[in-house]
Design brief:
Length: 106
Amino acid sequence: MIHEVGIVMLFLFMLLTAVAGIMNVIKQKPTGLQLALDIGMVVAGLMVFTYFIVSYKTFMIITLIACIIIVLAAMLNGYLNGSFHLSHHIIRIILIGVIYMLLLVK
């Protein structure tokens, strides 16, 4: 049961990140590096759908790399926008850690 909660939380986290990237592109019309970061966040967020395609071990590796990309892109995007808040990113990293701990419980 705890394992399934982790999967649902990961799906929500990554899909919300993808939606946020799409909304940022629509609303702010970024260019250059900011556009690349938003597209990267969308693609990384959609990697959660590999759950239905690959083995569970491969899924864990892909989504972990995608989560790292999401965090780094969000940090750089915040820095470029002048709205960087370290506490927000620390909470995001802790949330990802909790999600992966739930995913490792069998």
